[in-house]
Every structure is written in structure tokens, then in C-alpha cells.
Design brief:
The complex is a heterodimer of chains A (373) and B (229). With 373 residues, chain A is of the alpha+beta class. Chain A contains eleven helices and ten strands. In chain A, strand 4 (123-132) and strand 5 form a beta hairpin. In chain A, helix 5 runs antiparallel to helix 6 (211-232) and helix 8 packs parallel to helix 9 (274-295). Chain B has two domains: 2-143, Rossmann fold; 152-228, Winged helix-like DNA-binding domain superfamily/Winged helix DNA-binding domain (Arc Repressor Mutant, subunit A, Orthogonal Bundle). In chain B, helix 1 (11-22) links the parallel strand 1 (2-7) and strand 2. In chain B, helix 7 (157-167) packs across helix 9 (183-197) and helix 7 packs across helix 10. Chain B starts with a strand and ends with a helix. Classes of the chains: A alpha+beta (373), B alpha/beta (229). Strand 6 of chain A pairs parallel with strand 7 (144-145) of chain B.
């Protein structure tokens, strides 16, 4: 072979090395081109997407009315939205999240968090975590449920009070029944037996037994029946109305005491609604009994007025008032009044200044429709 | 002859009373009513000398009927019968203008005494003296504040303040704020004032307060030139 020929052969496609060499160059060129024009923008686009995503998350976090915290992979708080700033001071930025949410790490491990409640600065929040593994941060979403918890506590207290009231009412009912039963049996029943006996004696022996005695016995009996019936239902309310019943109440209350009581009737005229007037009378009875027992007042008054279709009743005294500590314990008397007002769809408010007195304010809509079952 | 009209919703009780008075020559029962409305009607139909009525009756209570009768006939003489003869009942019966109250467990003689003394125009309240009756009246009247016993001096300092403030314009919430008291407290003062000056409605109170303000301003104007002299 001639050297020329060898060279020619070497440089021709017949030489596999050349083929491989060219092929390699072409491939490299393609790879470089693709990398430059295609992958880079793709990566850039991905980055941009992530960036957008992050910005969106940030934006949503900013707009969210609930507090949101962002925590990096080391568990350090790196961002707060405005609501979060309101409940947490800015100092928490850069601090470990555990210092605010003690069970943060534990929560993070769990895949699902349901009904978890955390307490921060005396407030209660439900919590949910959202992890962004690509960007290596966690967003903590809090929802303030302090109001709900407070309401729940109030309801619990209310229920407890109701329970106590219920027990008191039951006891009172039982006591009343016992009393009435005793009265009927021991007193009325006995008297009727005696009367019957006397009548028999009178019939058998009209001369020695005087009819006056029989009259007297009947009088006593009717007095006792009257007493019992009055206990059960204040007849004066039905016969003369609320102001008369209140006047009697005040008179009985002040009769043997150093207190002065009065009724100021601004413009009240008797109303038809017996349930309401009976309720009001009972509330006033309770209020006056409280005044006698606790107030140490020298004067009290009941004001009654009708205004704008509402019946307003104000009971006030110049006594020692209800001290704040006492106020914390549910006073069954007050509770009773409040419950009664509520059942009549009324407003019950109590205002007390220590050593100046107590005022109870009641307001009822007139011409209402309530089912009295 | 004393002509009597009976009113009670229990016919048995009316019969008992009739039997009780039947053989009295000076007393004659000329009619019966079984409710308040019937009582008023029969009263003006029959013009009796005396009415003997139960207090609790359907269709107007006894006292409501009495008021209706007394409205038209000031000289009507009414005696009430009631289970209750306690002081508060005496007070209510006196207040409505009736002449007497006797217990339902009454004996014949007492009823006749009651009828005769009321017929002569005297009160008969289960044997109480006029003095005792007066004492009961004043005791209960003291409890129920009479509307309109007004003297400006009788307003407390605070009430005066409230009244003046009302004269300057009435808006419950605003007023409470300027006086630094709660709306409820304002109501308490307001009702006391209304009761003391004897007005029953809000507009009347406002008018009163404004008149008072004008009067005071006029007085001030009168004083001014005097001071300047």
C-alpha cells in the first residue's frame, strides 16, 4: 500500500476511529446546544414557578386573617404574617419554634393533625402544618378559637348554675308539698273531724252544746284554708293587679323592720298578661327577700313604668351592695330572678356599688306572643 | 226598707245570703248578678240602695265593677264580701271608693249591722274604727308614691342635673354619656323625676324640662340688669 493511500484511507469514513470521532463531536455539539437552549430555561422556569409558589404562599399568608408562622428546616421561625405579629412579639423571629409550640417536633412527625389545640399566651388555637419539602420550610396555620373556648366555659358554668337551681327548685317544691300536705292532714283534716264530732254532739244533745262553738270552729277552719290558698296563689294579684300586690309585698316586708320601702308608679296601668305580672311579683318577692337578708339598707324602692311598648321595673336599695367576691359564686336568688326574667323573654340586669346599693333593672316587651305551656 | 243587689259568681253563696236576709223586714233583695258586667248593668236597671258584691268574679272583678258604677253614680254604696279581710284588702276596697268590707265567714247580725250602717252613709270594715281606717290608708299611701306631689326642691341634686340635661336635648345614649352614668341609671333617675313632677310620658317630661329651662333663663335675664346696676 502506498503511503498516500494509507493516509487517504485513514481520513475516510472507512476508518472507524474517524467515524467515532466525528460522531462524538456531533453528539457533544448537540448536547451543548440542548443544554444551553433548553435545559437552562427549563430549570429557570421551574425555579420561577417555585419562586412564584413561594411568593403566593407568602401572599396568602399575608392576606390570611389567621396567624401564620413560617419555620425553616432547623425549626427556627423565619416569618410571621400580620395577625401572627399581633399575638406574638417580633422577638420570636429567629427563635426556635419549640419555645412557642412545645410539641412542634412531635406534630411535624405526624402526617395528620386533627383537632389539635395549642395554647399561646393564654389564647387557644387550632393548628395545622404545611411542609414545603422543596423549599425546606414549614408553614404553621393557627386559628384562634379562644372565643369559642370562652363561650364553652360560659355554657358549662351556666349549665352548672342551672343544675344547682334545678336542685334548689326541686327541694323547694318538695318542701312546699310536704308543708301543704302536712297542713291539710294535720290541720284541716283534724279540724273537720272535730267539727263533725261537735256537730254530732250538738244533734244528740242540743241543749248542752252551743251552736256558737260550731261557728267558731268553722271560722278557724276557713281561716286556715284561706291561709293555704294564699300561699299557693297570691289572690290579690288576680283581684287588684300588680301594683296592689306589690304594695302588699312592700307593706309586709317593712312592717316589722327599720326599712322604708316605696313604690313609684310612673305610668303603669294594669295589663292583662297574668303570667307576666305573676312572674314580676315573684321576682320582686325574691329581690325583697334578698334586700331583707343581705342589703342592710334603710330604704328601697320599686319603680314601674311603661315606655315604648316595654314594661320597665327597677328595684333599688341603698344598702351595702354585692361585693365582687360574693358575685363570683352563683347566688341562687339572683340566678332564680335572672332565669325567671329570661323565661318571660325579658332583660335582667344588676348593678351594684359597694356601700352604695344595688339596682336591679328589668325590661319586658308587652304584647308579646309566648307559649305558656 | 233597704233595697239590696247581690253579686257573686257562686249561686250557692247567693242563696245562702238570701236565706240569711229573707226574714228581715227592713232588708229586701231586689236582684242578683253573677259577674262584674252583670252587676254594673243591674245596678243601673234596678237602682238599689246597697250593693253586696264578691271581689273575685269573672268579666270584671268586683272592684272594677265598683269603679264603673261610682264613675256614673258617686253616691253608690257598695259592700264587698271577701275571704280576705286583712289590711291590704281594706286598703284596696277603701281606695276604690266602696263603703264596706265583710268577711265571707260573716254571721247574720254582723251583716245586718254592716248593711244598716252603710245605708246611713257610714263605713263598715269588719268593725274597724274610722281612725283605724285612716291609719291603714295613710300607711299604704306612703308606700305607693303619689304621682305629682311635686316641689322642685324635692328633686335631689342628681335628679336636678338630669332634668336640666333633658331640657338641653334628649337622647338617652348621649345623655347617659354626658352625665357619665349608664342608660339604666339614667332611667332610674328619669322615672323618679317623672313621678315627682307628675308626668306620665316622655314628651311631657321633655316639655317640662324645656319650660323649666326657659323659666330659669328668663329669671337670669331679670337678675342681670339688676346686677349691672
Amino acid at each position: 500500500m502506498k503511503p498516500d493511500h494509507i493516509l487517504e484511507t485513514f481520513l475516510s469514513w472507512q476508518n472507524p476511529a474517524i467515524f467515532v470521532f466525528v460522531f462524538f463531536i456531533v453528539i457533544s455539539a448537540i448536547v451543548i446546544l440542548i443544554k444551553k437552549d433548553f435545559i437552562k430555561p427549563l430549570k429557570r422556569r421551574t425555579e420561577k414557578l417555585e419562586d412564584d409558589n413561594m411568593r403566593l404562599m407568602a401572599l396568602f399568608a399575608e392576606l390570611d386573617p389567621d396567624p401564620i408562622l413560617r419555620v425553616d428546616e432547623n425549626g427556627i421561625i423565619i416569618k410571621l404574617n400580620d395577625p401572627a405579629k399581633e399575638i406574638l412579639s417580633l422577638d420570636v423571629l429567629g427563635q426556635k419554634c419549640d419555645s412557642i409550640i412545645p410539641n412542634y417536633k412531635e406534630l411535624l412527625k405526624r402526617t395528620q393533625i386533627s383537632n389539635e389545640i395549642v395554647e399561646i399566651d393564654g389564647k387557644h388555637f387550632t393548628i395545622s402544618l404545611k411542609e414545603n419539602s422543596l423549599l425546606e420550610f414549614v408553614q404553621i396555620y393557627l386559628h384562634d378559637i379562644s372565643n369559642r373556648i370562652e363561650q364553652e366555659k360560659k355554657i358549662e358554668l351556666y349549665q352548672e348554675n342551672l343544675r344547682l337551681l334545678r336542685i334548689k327548685l326541686d327541694n323547694q317544691n318538695e318542701k312546699q308539698r310536704e308543708l301543704i300536705g302536712q297542713d291539710l292532714h294535720d290541720n284541716i283534716g283534724n279540724q273537720i273531724s272535730i267539727l263533725k264530732l261537735s256537730l254530732q254532739n250538738f244533734i244528740n244533745n242540743p241543749e248542752t252544746h252551743k251552736i256558737d262553738e260550731l261557728y267558731n270552729k268553722i271560722d278557724l277552719l276557713s281561716d286556715d284554708v284561706r291561709g293555704i290558698s294564699h300561699q299557693l296563689c297570691p289572690k290579690i294579684l288576680k283581684e287588684f293587679g300588680l301594683v296592689s300586690a306589690l304594695t302588699q309585698l312592700v307593706e309586709v316586708t317593712t312592717r316589722n323592720s327599720n326599712m322604708n320601702g316605696r313604690i313609684i308608679n310612673v305610668n303603669y296601668e294594669e295589663i292583662e298578661d297574668f303570667n307576666l305580672t305573676l312572674g314580676l311579683l315573684r321576682i320582686c318577692q325574691e329581690a325583697l327577700s334578698n334586700i331583707v337578708k343581705h342589703s342592710k339598707c334603710s330604704e328601697f324602692e320599686i319603680q314601674i313604668a311603661i315606655e315604648e311598648g316595654k314594661l320597665k321595673l327597677i328595684i333599688s336599695d341603698n344598702g351595702v351592695g354585692i361585693s365582687k367576691e360574693e358575685n363570683k359564686k352563683p347566688s341562687l336568688g339572683l340566678l332564680n330572678m335572672e332565669e325567671r326574667s329570661k323565661s318571660l323573654l325579658g332583660i335582667f340586669e344588676i348593678d351594684s356599688i359597694e356601700n352604695e346599693g344595688t339596682t336591679i333593672y328589668l325590661e319586658f316587651l308587652l304584647n308579646r306572643e309566648i307559649n305558656h305551656d | 226598707m233597704i233595697r239590696v243587689l247581690l253579686a257573686d259568681d257562686h249561686s250557692l253563696f247567693r242563696d245562702g245570703l238570701k236565706a240569711l236576709l229573707d226574714n228581715e223586714s227592713t232588708i229586701k233583695i231586689i236582684g242578683e248578678a253573677e259577674d262584674g258586667r252583670g252587676l254594673v248593668k243591674k245596678y243601673f236597671d234596678l237602682c238599689p240602695d246597697i250593693v253586696i258584691s264578691d271581689i273575685s268574679m269573672p268579666n270584671k272583678t268586683g272592684t272594677e265593677a265598683a269603679k264603673a258604677i261610682l264613675n256614673k253614680d258617686k253616691n253608690a254604696k257598695i259592700i264587698f264580701l271577701s275571704q280576705h279581710t286583712e289590711d291590704n284588702y281594706i286598703y284596696e276596697v277603701l281606695k276604690c271608693g266602696a263603703f264596706g268590707l265583710v268577711g265571707k265567714n260573716i254571721v247574720k247580725n254582723e251583716l245586718i249591722i254592716a248593711i244598716e250602717s252603710v245605708y246611713k252613709g257610714k263605713h263598715y270594715f269588719i268593725g274597724r274604727t274610722e281612725q283605724e281606717l285612716k291609719a291603714i290608708l295613710s300607711r299604704f299611701n306612703d308606700i305607693v308614691e303619689k304621682n305629682g306631689d311635686f316641689i322642685l326642691d324635692s328633686l335631689t341634686e342628681r335628679e336636678n342635673e338630669v332634668l336640666i340635661a333633658i331640657g338641653n336635648g334628649f337622647d338617652r345614649d348621649k345623655l347617659a354619656r354626658t352625665l357619665k352614668i349608664s342608660v339604666r341609671t339614667l332611667d332610674t333617675h328619669r322615672f323618679r323625676i317623672m313621678s315627682k313632677i307628675g308626668v306620665k310620658k316622655q314628651p311631657e317630661l321633655i316639655k317640662f324640662a324645656m319650660d323649666l329651662k326657659l323659666k330659669k333663663e328668663r329669671e337670669l335675664e331679670k337678675i342681670k340688669p339688676f346686677n349691672e346696676n
